[in-house]
Every structure is written in structure tokens, then in C-alpha cells.
Amino acid sequence: MKAKKIISLLCVVAMSAGLLAGCGKTTDGGDGGSGGGASGKSGGTLTLEFFDVAANYQGTQPGWFAKVVKDRFDLELNIIAPQVGGDALYQTRSATGNLGDVLILEAGQFQECVEQGLVKDITADIYNYDSFKTFKQQIDALNNGLPNNDGKIYGIPTEMMNTSPTSYSQDVIYSSPQLRWNLYKEIGSPEIKDLNGLLDALAAMQEKHPQTESGDPIYGASLWPDWDGGDDMIGIANVVQLTTWYGEKIKQSLILKPDGTFIPLTDKKGSYYKILKFWNDAYNRGLVDPDSFSQGWNEACAKMQNGQVLLFWYSWQQGFWNSNDRLKDGSAFIFVPVKDQKYYADADSFFGSGRVWAIGSKVDDEKYKRIMDFLSWYASPEGAMFQHDGIEGFNYEKGADGRLYQKNDNALMDNLPVPAEYGGGGYQDGNNAINQWIVSANSTNPLTNEPYAQSYWSTYKELMMTDMKKEWQQKFGADEPAEYMKKNNVLVISPNVSVALPVDTNDIAVIRNQCKVAVNDWSWRMIKAADDAEFDSMWDKMTTELDGLGFQDLMKFDKDKYTIELNAKNAVK
Amino acid sequence: MQRTSLTKKQIRGYREFLYVLPFLILVLIFSYYPLYGWVYAFFDYKPPKPLSESTFVGLKWFKSMVENEVKRKQLVSVLRNTFAMSGISLFFSWFPMIFAIFLNEIKCKPYKKFVQTVTTLPNFVSWVLVYAVAYNVFSNSGALNSLLKEWGMITKPIDYLESTSHIWFKMWLWLTWKNAGWASIMYLAAISGIDEEYVEAAKVDGASRMKIIWHITIPGILPTYFVLVMLNLASFLSNGMEQYYVFQNAFNKEYVQVLDLYVYNLAMGSGGYPLSTAFSILKSLVSVLLLFLTNFASKKIRGESII
Asked: What angle is formed at CA B62 by the lines to CA B56 and CA B63, rounded to 5 degrees?
């Protein structure tokens, strides 16, 4: 009897204690609850919490890049990725007053966080580091653009370049139609007049090659819905990107025309309608992968790597197919011009690509110093080479002539095993999970006087002077795709500027989100529309629904917002 | 030793109060404290700006729910889906009961255990995994479509996951596949509570198996059934969002977006916290109302209340 009483009493005490323990506040404010491994002691291993809007990976940085950072700075990187964990991560974490130790934020978020005191003032120290001094003009421009800022430095732009805000130094623009060269030749290298011509070409290719060698079906295109709504974009990613083929740039609810005027996204003469119709036509001609409506990027990407997809449109997509061997045998993807197109491209990201690096306001002095050391290295040529070129001895080596030569070109594509001395594991698995740079890959590396990006090295270009490239150059009369566009006057370059744009009010944020969802849902349904009449009637229904959700207010807000940016761009021109 | 002026009874009262105290604290913290969050519905709150710096806007977000036809239509369609799917569940709520009765009739013990385990297991599989299975089997290039194609029965894949035909019923099927075994446990317990003597007596009187089920088992577990139905009615509006969240896509969203999912879609990502809080306040109010209504009905019909 007594024992029973004691036990029940103990239970009560234990339960109460358990309850109260759950409510306790963490006393360790500086750390924001980054469990394990974090020690503030000088010299010990320190875990940095990276709040990183660019990352596709959440967790501790593994593999060879972890070793690079650990060996040099004794740091571990714990990456918190809203792209993985959901955008609510930003809202909940910022509401607690501590986002993390190192922050990579969208421009609007950066502005909000500075206002709310979530970002550390780094004015006193930043220009003590040489690698930041090089970019003083760009860093100052970003911070001076902050509202009510009197010369303080809070953030560092992402992907800055050391060229100019109006130049264009890449060979291939971000988005353009790309076809497999051998298949294009096989159907007689037809001149492609417009989007219909492009569909004809894809249909002809698909007819000749309905299946891969292993029997998997081949499609004109494979789409994926899981990127929709990211990057503050209204409209589905697979359409928004392609609108740049007609010189237009979607600015949320508006389309910026090449002549500098804005039209609504819902304008039937605009490029969103045009490209959506293009996919609808493609679908009705049986050129679109039927999985397009439910698969994720990973499945779509697997098909691209497997040769099941005939049309690429991102420049980086080539990385999933174009190995050096395929470039040599001519089966690689390359830009093929469509005659009625005019391509929009953002100029060199001199002032940065739009996102911002910052340091959380809650870090202590010791941690702060080590973060700054790390970031300055990250921005230095040595750091940038690890990000853009990989490991010396594994991904490239220095030749006797002092130039860099590529090695293991398929390291990323095939996730090659990395030797133990560099950290082991797969190369892709251990790749830099921060996925955002301070210095752009197209910047000139002061150590070699060539861009960081391997595909721009003189040694690589010599190697890649393949038959395929020569045929292409002969047919289109230019060395590189971007040069062809410049020569034929079909490239619209939008200067890079650094301006702070107004942040959404609560009302606008709600409208924007609801409109985003509505446009995306309707767009996918329209791709499946049976005919033009159904397509148009769906478009009209979408427009009505959008107006009910407050699209007009949204357009007004966006117009005011992007006119600021447009004016700045015009001033540079 | 100091003598207290409390009587024995009072001491017992205090002691027993201490026994329930942990649970009271639990309820206060997890059920009442969150109600404080309702204030967000009356402010223009947008993180990272703290609530103390946000402007008070009164009923603005409540009004915005119904301010024009498109929004009203959206709300109606969300409510329609919620009611339809809860309604189907309610309409078929006898299913686990019948399942339990038949399960109970299986005389071969190992087989009975096997069936019970197999039907209970899906309850512990998360919806994400259920969808992964569904995707692999029913997607356009999934197992079923590939098989049908191979056998030459179809030339174009059938959109099981994207089509909206019978979508509510399909959702109910998934739910039942996952929950039926679990839900029948309660009834199995109720059945084992029925006095064996009734069954023996009926057998002596020559009642068939069906007659025993009809006249003894079912009346025996009907009170359990009613209590469960009443409780389900009270949560009529909250049919959970996980299932619909994983199964939603641009094509079927119009029919599977239920209230909980709508609130989630509104709040997460866009930071539409005030608006979605406003929605959940209304939802809670309606749920409380429903609970009282069913309780009232129960009192009238069965003569006993459930709360």
C-alpha cells in the first residue's frame, strides 16, 4: 500500500517536472538551439548555423567540402534550407529574433531583417579584409540603398562580378532553346521559324527516336511542377523561364516588354500566354511527358540524364547531359536559334544576383570573428576556386604552361568517388551545399586571369573545339551562342543595378500568394486543354478569379515597385 | 509533529486535487494557452515584425474572406469539399463496426490475428509514404498503367491521380484502407464486453449466427457506435489535412482542398497568418457549436448526453 502511494506520488512529480521542463526557455541565446558540436571556446570546432535560402540540402555539410572548411577554419556548417523545410522557416525563425549565424537572404527579407535588428552591423570590420575591399563599390551600393541607412554596412551581395553592370560575358545565355545536335542534323537541320517550327522539329525527332536504347520512352519535353512559386515568381517555372525567349521578363504580376513598358501577366498578347499555349500545343501533339504534371525535379532530371528529353532551356541543364565524350561525338545539346525570337538576358551580375549575405545579430564576438574570417576566405580566389572549380588534383590540375586543365569532367554528373585524402565520399554528395557564392563563376580569377568557370578556360575551349562545335559555328556564323545573338541583334541585355525595392505589405503578401496559387493551378490545367477554345475560356476564368483575389491592387503595387528598378536600369544605359 | 486543523476529508480533497493537477496544467498549456494566438487575427502581423509593433485592424481579415464573389465562391467550394468528405466518412461510419463484427466471427485464431494485424498496420504508415506508394502504382508511368499498356488494354495512360472523377470516393477509399483496422479495435473491445450468457442462451434457443449478430452483437455495441459518431460529428470540419495535402495537385485541388488544407496553404509560405488564424477561429467556433448540437440531439434521442 505504501509503495503504491509513493509510486503514484513520484509519478505526479515526474509528470509535473516533465511538463515544466518543456516550457523552459533556452538560456543559450547566442546559439539559437543549434544542438551538438557547438562550442564557443577559442580554437575548438564551431558549428555555424547557415540560414540559406539558396540551399537545396538541409543538414550538416558532408564530404570533401566539409573537410576543406574544417581543415582551414575548424568549422562545421549546419545548413537550414527553406527550400527544403518550407518558407515558413523564415517566418517562424525570424519571429523568434534569431535566424541563424550566417544568413543568405532574399533582398526583401534582408531589408526586413535589418529593420528588425536581426542582422549584425559589420561596418567596422568588413574592409579590413582584402577580399571584401575588392568589392567595396558593390557592397556600398547595396547597403546605401537600404532605407534610412547612414553609411552602415549590414550585407554583402551574392555572386558579384568584377566586370561592369552592362557587359555580358557569358557564352550561353541563361535560357534559350537547346537541341541535341546529332538529332537536329538527322532531321535535316531545318531552319526553325517560330514555336510551331520548334514543335515540328521536336515531333520529327521523337518520331525517329521514340525510345532510348534501353527502351525508355523519349519525349519532346518533360516538365516539373515542384519549382512553382519559388523565387517569388508568379506563374509556373517552366513557362516563366521561357518567356525570356521573346525579350520579355516577368516581373511578378507584370511583364516587362523590351521597349520598357509593363503589361499585365494576364495580357493575351504577352509572352506568358504565348508560352503556355506552346506547351498546350506540345501536349496535344503528344510531345510532353505525361508525368509532367505530377513528377518532381528529381524525376525530370533523371529523364534528362537518361536521354529521354529532346528540349532543354536552361544553360546549366546541359550539365546533366553534355559530357566531353558527347560533345566529341556530336550528341550534345546546343543552342539552335528560332527565327522569330529575341532573347532577354540579365547583364553580368556586377552588383550581385539579388540575394544578400549577412551575419545574425545574436552571434558573440568570438563567433563573429571566425565567421568573418570564413566569409573573407569564401570571397577570396582560393575559396572561389573550391566553389567553382572543385579540388585541385581531382577536378583540375595546373599544367606546365601555368594554365589550368580540367580533370574528371563527369565528377558532378556521375558523383565520382573522391579520394580519402580530400575527404572521401561522392563528389556530388560532398559538393558545397551552401549553393551560393560571393564571387560569380564568371568573374575573372586574378590568379589565372581567366574566369573561374571551367567551361571558359582556354584549355577547355581548345579541347572542346570539336567537330560539332565547328559545324555549329559554320552554320550559324558565330563562335558562341551569345555572340550569334549579339551579331543578329536578338539579344536584349538588361543592366545590373542595385536598388532596394519596397517590401510587400501584409495585404499584398496575401494577395500575391493567392494569385500565385491560382495562376499555377490554372496554368497546369490549361496545358492539358483539349483545344484553343477551351484554353481561352480557361484563361478568361483565370483572369476573373485573379481579379477577385485582388490582382489589380497587386499590379499597381508591382508597377510602382519595378518602375524604381526600371528607372535605375535606364540610368545605367 | 504539528497537528493540522484540516479534517481528513479535506486532506484527501487536496491530495486528489494534486493527482489531477498535472492533467489540468496539461490542458491549460496545450488547449487554452494556444487560444492566445487568436489575437493574430486582429492585427496586420507579418514576421519578423513583432506583434507589439503591428497595427490593430479589427475585423478586417474576417471581412476580407467574403468581400467579393470570387472569394465567396472559393470559400463555398472549400466548405463543400469539407462537408462532402466528412459526410462520406460519416455515411460509411458503420464500416469499421461491421468489419469488427465479421472479424470477431472468424473462428481460426491465427487467421483472425493475421487479418487484424494486416488491416491495422496501414494506420501507422504516414500519408507521405501512402502517397509514394500511390504514385508508384497509379501515376501515368506507374505500375498499373505500365501493366495495362503491356497487356494492350490501353494506349494512353489513365490519369488516376489527376482526374477529378469520383475523387471524394477515392479519397474515402484511401482513408478507409488506412484507418478501418484501427477504428475496428474500439468495436472489438465493445464486443468482448458483451455478456457471453446472452450468446449461450441464444444458441440454446437455436439462434443462427446471423441472428446472434443481429439481435445481440449489434445492439450490444450500438452505444459505442453512437458515441464515436457523435465525437466524429464534432470534428466534422477538421478532417485533417495530411491526406489531402499529399494528394492535391493543380487538377484535383478544386475538389480536395478542405478547410484545414486551405488554412495551411494560406498561412505557410506567404505569411498570411492573420487571415488563416481568422479562418481557424471560425472553424473552432463552428466545431464547438456542432458539438453542442450533437450533444443536444443525443440527449433528446437517446436520453443521455455525451459531455
From this structure: 100
Instruction: Give which of A266, A267, A265, A238 is closest to A250, Cα–Cα.
Output: A265
In a shared domain, residues A122 and A235: no
CA–CA gap between residue B196 and residue B68 (Å, rounded)? 62
Give the domain range for residue A335. Answer: 175-347+465-572
DSSP calls for B136-193 = HHHSTTSHHHHHHHHTTS-SS---TTT--TTHHHHHHHHHHHHHHHHHHHHHHHHHHT
- Tell me the CATH number at A119: 3.40.190.10
* pLDDT tens digits, A154-211: 999 999 998 899 999 899 999 999 999 999 999 999 999 999 999 999 999 999 999 9
CA distance A343 to chain B (A): 30
Contact A229 B161 (CB under 8 A): no
Q: How many CB atoms lie within 10 A of CB A320?
A: 20
Minimum distance, in Å, between the CA of residue B176 and any CA atom of chain A: 24
Is the residue at A12 inside a domain?
A: no
Tell me which of B43, B46, B72 to substitute to probe the interface with A (most A C-beta atoms closer than 10 Å).
B46
pLDDT less than 50: residues of chain A: 1, 18-41
ipTM comes to 0.83
Dihedral (C-alpha) B71, B72, B74, B79: value to the nearest 10 degrees?
A: 140
Q: What is the pLDDT of residues B85-134, one digit of tens each?
A: 999 988 998 999 999 999 998 989 999 999 999 999 999 999 999 999 99
Residue A293 lies in a domain: yes
Amino acid at A114: V
Q: Are the C-beta atoms of residues B174 and B243 closer than 8 Å to each other?
A: yes
Distance from CA of A44 to the nearest CA of B (A): 32
Contact B251/A at CB under 8 A: yes
Q: Which of A53, A232, A309, A510 to mutate to test the interface with B (most CBs of B within 10 A)?
A: A510
**Cell representation of residue B93:** 461510419
User: A510 and chain B: CB distance < 8 Å anywhere?
Assistant: yes
DSSP state of B29: I
Angle between helical axes of B218-234 and B69-91 (0-180°, round to 10): 170
CB contact under 8 A, A528 and B251: yes
User: What domain count does chain B have?
Assistant: 1
* Residue ending a domain, choose from A453, A480, A511: A453
Contacts of B225 (CB under 8 A, 6+ apart): B93, B94, B97, B187
Residue of B nearest to A544 (CA): B70
CA distance A224 to chain B (A): 12
Mean pLDDT of chain B: 88
Inter-chain CB proximity B48 and A88 less than 8 Å: no
| A484 backbone dihedrals φ, ψ, rounded to 5° | -60, -45
The answer to whether residue B305 scores a pLDDT higher than 90 is no
B272, A112: Cβ pair inside 8 Å?
no
Residue B303 lies in a domain: no
- Picking from B22, B68, B271, the nearest residue to A16 by CB comes out as B22
Q: Is the dihedral of CA A65, A67, A73, A74 positive or negative?
A: positive
And the C-alpha cell for B152?
Answer: 494492350
- CB-nearest partner of B268 from A12, A87, A505: A87
Judged by CB atoms closer than 8 Å, whether chains meet at B19 and A16 is answered as no
Measuring CA to CA, which residue among B33, B145, B186 is closest to residue A294? B145
Dihedral Cα A155, A161, A163, A169, nearest 10 deg: -150
Contact residues, chain B, for A549 at CB < 8 Å: 70-71
